[in-house]
């Protein structure tokens, strides 16, 4: 796992990387090979295949852009990574959810260790529960918005399970004719909406959703790094920390705007159903925005969490190399305007990551497998 084909890498060369869209930015693949940590998969410019975007371990602004088929040639991937590479090779389009599900399937085989396999089972159970809660909360809102004052004497959330079920059937049957479809179709749409938005979380859910938990973890990481900056006397070490926190704050600002937009949408089930009836595709794309915005930050948060106090300076340089670039497409999504190029300007001064050359490869793979287990 120590062999890096420098001759091949130099043949591909490095390129500037300022993606205009999230699809151009690509999706982070949870590889465990040190050289591939944080690498992204994206369609080629001609959309005729896939390619990898790999942070230049020498630091600086450039990234290696490597054809997907060449991945096993430029380095010696772990068995887990080779299997993941094989599973993704057949895909014609990539999204965070597709990569996540493919990676879970590979980890479930035990190729990233038992902890990762167990974490996948837990994550799948949590997602199923989140989908059920989302469906239930959307139904409760539909009940509240379709009942008469007399029927709503007992708030639906306070009623018995049997009565809630009866009231839900009545609400669906009452609402369906208003949009010209059958009750069965409305019920199916509610399930589809729950599946689409369960990662976002429906207002009123007391369990924190997957994406909101990541936002909370990212915010906590920023606070801890800023405290570390205040206590660090070395300006050189502070540079990497500032790059990470700047990029994280930009992401948090955009994520907050995305959640405000979606929370308003998810707070009105009848309006949501009407929008789904008109055209489900754009609504489904809006549901994926938090995933796209937050993609790549899970591994960075886990790098910080995994580092001991004396290794945090080195971890911050590694995190700085991986800090996601924010595409300008977010302006069209959310109307957010920022200094998008600031993280890129700071990145030019990021120093080389020498760990992958240092003989610590087995130790780093073990660490990456720990990160993989936490990010299932």
Which helices and strands occur, and which strands form pairs?
Blueprint: H1 6-12, E1 14-15, H2 22-25, E2 27-28, E3 40-43, E4 50-55, E5 63-67, H3 71-74, H4 79-89, H5 96-108, H6 114-146, H7 161-175, H8 183-197, H9 210-231, H10 235-266, H11 269-278, H12 280-287, H13 289-294, H14 297-306, H15 312-322, H16 329-334, H17 342-347, H18 361-374
Antiparallel strand pairs: 1-5, 2-3, 3-4, 4-5
Helix pairs in contact: 4-5, 5-6, 6-7, 6-8, 6-18, 7-8, 9-10, 9-14, 10-15, 14-18
Q: How would you characterize the overall build of this protein?
A:
- The chain is mainly alpha-helical and 376 residues long.
- The protein has a domain at 6-108.
- It contains 18 helices and 5 strands.
- It has a 5-stranded antiparallel sheet with strand order 1-5-4-3-2.
- Helix 6 crosses helix 7 (161-175), helix 6 packs across helix 8 and helix 6 runs parallel beside helix 18 (361-374).
- The longest helix is centred in the middle third of the chain and has 33 residues, at 114-146.
- The chain is elongated and about 75 Å long.
Labels describing this entry:
376 residues, mainly alpha, five-stranded antiparallel beta sheet, 18 helices, 5 strands
Compose a concise summary of this entry:
The protein is 60% helix and 5% strand. With 376 residues, the protein is mostly helical.
Order of helices and strands: HEHEEEEHHHHHHHHHHHHHHHH
Instruction: Return the average pLDDT rounded to an integer.
Output: 87
Can you tell me the residue ranges where pLDDT is under 50 for at least 5 consecutive residues? 352-359
Note the beta-strand portion: 5-15%
Number of helices: 18
Q: Which class do the helix and strand fractions yield?
A: mainly alpha
- What integer value in Å does the Rg equal? 23 Å
Q: Within the largest sheet, what's the order of strands?
A: 1-5-4-3-2
Shape: elongated
Q: What is the first-to-last residue Cα distance?
A: 23 Å
> How is the biggest beta sheet arranged?
5 strands, antiparallel
Give the tally of β-strands: 5
User: How helical, in percent, are the residues?
Assistant: 55-70%
